[in-house]
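The protein record passed on for reference:
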Amino acid sequence: MDIILNPIGFIASALAVGGMVFFSAVVAPAAFIKLEEEQAVKFIRGIFPWYYLYVIITAGLGALTMLTILPWASAGLAVAAAGAFISRQGLMPRINGARDQANDGDTDAQARFDKLHKLSVRINGIGLMGAIVAIVLIAIHS
């Protein structure tokens, strides 16, 4: 069974890391470079639910397939999937709400947005590190 699950786990892990890096290093910066700020914000806001869902699925699949083979790799991927779930379901609506309130003139909302955004960046970074560690462990095991 390991002969089937190990490649699936490795591919799912690679897809998770690749997607996370591509979004953070290419998509988000390009949106703010190439689009007007208002358009960039709308674009990023529209793509974030899909980004998080992608990470939940790829990292979650990797975590499940590695559970009995490499528990530490599974744990790293589970951290990535859980972080994406928390960000998608909990933080993202609060971040969007704070951004909207700040745009409507609420001076306290900008501070809330900044705090929540920093938290989401940290959660994403921890998830990315967990997924990278998983790939390393899977590669060593292979």
Q: What stands out?
A: Residues 107-141 form the longest helix (35 residues). The mean pLDDT is 93. The chain has one domain: 2-141. The helical segments are 2-34, 37-66, 71-103, 107-141.
